[in-house]
Amino acid sequence: MGNVPTTVKHCLSYEQLIQDYPWLRRWLLQEKEIVPTGVKIQLIDMLSGTGLHVIEATSFVSSKWVPQMADHTEVLRGIQRAPHVQYPVLTPNLQGFQDAVAAGATEVAVFGSASETFSKKNINCSIDESMLRFEEVINTAKEQQIPVRGYVSCALGCPHEGHIEPSKVAEVAKKLYEMGCYEISLGDTIGVGTPGSMFKMLQCVMKEVPADALAVHCHDTYGQALPNILTALQMGVCVVDSAVAGLGGCPYAQGSSGNVSTEDVLYMLHGMGIETGVNLAKVVEAGDFICNALCRKTNSKVAKARGRTL
Amino acid sequence: MAAVIRLVNRSPLSSAMGQQYLALSSTAKVQAAGVRAGQALPEKVKIVEVGPRDGLQNEKTIVPTETKIHLIDMLSVSGLPVIEATSFVSPKWVPQMADQVEVMKGICRQPGVSYPVLTPNLKGFQAAVKAGASEVAIFGAASELFSKKNINCSVDESLQRFDEVMKAAKEAGVPVRGYVSCVLGCPYEGKVAPEKVAHVAKSLYSMGCYEISLGDTIGVGTPGSMSEMLEAVSREVPVNALAVHCHDTYGQALANILVALQMGISVVDSSVAGLGGCPYAQGASGNVATEDVVYMLHGLGIQTGVDLSKLMDAGAFICRSLNRKTNSKVSQATCKL
Question: Distances from the Cα of B28 to the Cαs of A205, A214, B22, B207, in angstroms?
């Protein structure tokens, strides 16, 4: 099986994707190798030395659905954990949570959705059913003093339903927060959001969840990620998700970018005088490393510009 | 791997789970940049399309005259109010624009659309008017070194040259737009003082330019430096006579444009398909893509008069002609929404 985009690891029902998108099946079959475990470990170790506080290391979704993350246990055991850095892992259900803890996880994440259709296609159940599953995870995590981060997908639009009401995003975010997630990351899963829709959505969510418990997870598919992040910052959000080198395409927009690149986000934040504690040059190095390993070009404009400045 | 960036500040804070991290309000830092989300934005924004000139001038491939004309004609029916058509700089320096006269005479001008052309000096201005130009543009720089390397004279000397153009343009009733390059950084000097930008912008405005376009020539600006620069310039030039010309070399263009809008700017330059690389960062992108700007503006409820799908058609056409991929993310996305 070939390289699976990073977004697949945490977003999507793999089998459903393969069925709905034959091009994906063909693309995967063309790739010769999965990213070796050693490469993943080295990437995480490099990121651990950059000053980043949180590095999402792997996923305990069943390897039947996400074969790219089949080595989750070896990865978690192989990385050199830096002090003051968290390494959360995805856990879709109690089984995944138990496996994660057995492998040494000290923080986990659960993935809800603001779109019913996306929830059904992605994890094969309704939003309410998914909340029941997550409740099990969160309650067990509480007993073991393991923090849980909640994600809400499709916060600014859904590939199936289109427009998503901000009130629905607020409802799901509130539920996850009240169940015990310490932080809720609001994801623009298909990158269709703009500062306009980001503002309206956050206004609504902030009535239910305090700003300091919110994060934004913006995709750059339509080039809107940085202005969307800027809008979120202006509204008091101070946690931003991003991916080194902008790894991870968009399965809903063939050939398009997905995650916003960490390097470009850092460049903006530092340019605004905002401290992140992160060394940009070291993140660029980590990005160069993984792009060489994947034989692909970086999606980071900062990395591209720095590599070739006259 | 996904990273989570937590913003850092001075006061201590503990989260519910006992994690200590230096905390914030980012709001304080961001508000220091003088901007707020939800602040009243302009209802309308005028887009100045620079693809046919600034874009094509910086592409490696020289396109045939008919292709340029067809591109401009496609852009003319997309709703864009201003399309920078060509340049009357000597073809010895800019061979890509050698067909300036044929382009001006060949395009099908739409009523209500302006077609400004670059004119570096009086000779260029006279040639432009003879070829049918009814609006021109002149290019200053906020950096001395850039001015010397780019047009072989100091900033003050360039302003003197432009004075001749301004006088001739006034007599002929031809409006003149002024550009200031390197407003957020220079490839030779590095940091550029906002006061210098303000000085050059004020000079051009006082000479009679109806609008001053402030260019982040190497795309190094961020919302921080953009707001600092605009604060200085808007003390000297009214904000409704200002435009921003952002390059996306470091991916910051849309964020910078957003900040400019929040500060009252309502004219934005951009290039269809993000045409035009950056001569100072080989292989890197240059102009921000008009499609991506329009997508953001429409998402903010701001009117542009532009039909995004017709604009994307024009972008697709020129990319096919240049045999290159678009730099517009909106065009790249094939999301089934």
Answer: 21, 17, 15, 39
